[in-house]
Amino acid sequence: MLGMVKDAKIYVAGHLGLVGSALVRNLQAKGYTNIIRRTRSELDLLDQQAVHAFLKFEKPAYIFMAAAKVGGIYANNTYRADFIYENLVVEANIIHGAHLAGIGRLCFLGSSCIYPRDCPQPIKEEYLLTGPLEPTNEPYAIAKIAGIKLCESYNRQYGSQYVSVMPTNLYGPNDNYDLNNSHVLPALMRKAHEAKVRGDKELVVWGSGKPMREFLYVDDMADACVFLMERGVKEGMVNVGTGQDVTIRELAETVMSVVGFKGEIVFDASKPDGMPRKLLNVDRMRALGWQAQTPLRDGIAKAYADFLSN
User: Fold this and answer.
1) How many other C-beta atoms are found inside a 10 Å radius of the C-beta of residue 86?
2) Is there a contact between 150 and 157 (Cβ–Cβ < 8 Å)?
3) What pLDDT, in 10s, does the model give residues 75-88?
4) Within its chain, how far is the Cα of 89 from the centroid?
């Protein structure tokens, strides 16, 4: 079955988060009118019975799985048990529940941290499980790899069409700006903003500033997910990114420029760097006819406007 039917039921799991809210925006902009949403108080995705009953009752034609426990290097390394347990349970509940309810189309959101720490660059999809993971986020990565393999296994055994999407580092509206739990870009944005407000002379950045990272504006990510479902891509995993990366130093300089903070950068080398480089090979998406549209500086400016308004 190609494409998506405009008035068919679509369930976006995690619709209030960074990715989920972008998916809802994208679907609405493309004329999809029947989007099902449930807050955590309405549906606890850790509750298997509740999830299975919900999916059997609602019977959405399509599911976008954007619900996950996520965080930056500190959160991943500190709450290791929470990250592996909650992500394993949520994805198992939704994917098996979709199967039980006869829902054939699903898009699972993974993460670029699933790849080995010392991967050849740029990272191709086939490099999955070819080496040890980055230790600081290993529990989260293992949970996401399990989700990919769940989709793969249900496709092979039952003929479902569950596709897995591996985004690079995401940022944008509805991001998490908590300094203990957020990712590097929103954390830098908040730090730079607060340093500007206080009139500080310097901005402290974790690590050496040398690791390289790729960043994708979340609305581009959402567009890629809907594109894959509309194209009827049946299975497998696909990297989604820009195909370009910057050093953490360059990122910090761009954030400071957008925010308007004029001080100096000071690197705290006592803090971990994480993976040395993490650039995705996006040839598969380009071959399908999709590529990211938002340049990094433009995306940061949009994200900062959202940060100021919230």
Assistant:
1) 18
2) no
3) 888 999 999 999 99
4) 18
Residue 155 near residue 161 (C-beta atoms within 8 A): yes
**Per-residue confidence band for 180, with pLDDT thresholds at 50, 70 and 90:** confident
Give me the long-range contacts of 303-307 (CB less than 8 A, separation at least 24). 303/171, 303/172, 303/173, 303/175, 303/185, 303/186, 303/189, 303/217, 304/189, 304/193, 304/258, 304/259, 306/172, 306/173, 306/174, 306/175, 307/175, 307/177, 307/186, 307/189, 307/190, 307/193
CA distance 13 to 63: 7
Question: 39: exposed, middle or buried (C-beta count within 10 Å: 0-12, 13-18, 19+)?
Answer: exposed
**Spatial separation of the C-alpha atoms in residues 129 and 133, rounded to whole Å:** 9
Helices 218-231 and 18-29: crossing angle, nearest 10°?
Answer: 60
DSSP symbol at 124: P
**80 in helix, strand or coil?**
helix
- Domains in the chain, ordered, with CATH? 10-175+215-244+278-295 (3.40.50.720)
Tell me the catalytic residues.
Answer: 140
pLDDT digits (tens, 9 = 90+) for 252-306: 999 999 999 999 999 999 988 877 888 999 999 999 999 999 999 999 999 999 9
The candidate with the shortest Cα–Cα distance to 20, out of 225, 193, 203, is 225
Question: Which residues share a beta bridge with 35?
Answer: 10
Question: What pairing do the DSSP bridges indicate for beta strands 10-13 and 277-278?
Answer: unpaired
Q: Specify the amino acid at residue 162.
A: Y
In this predicted model, what pLDDT tens digit does every residue of 91-128 receive, in sequence order? 999 999 999 999 999 999 999 999 999 899 999 999 99
The pTM score is 0.93
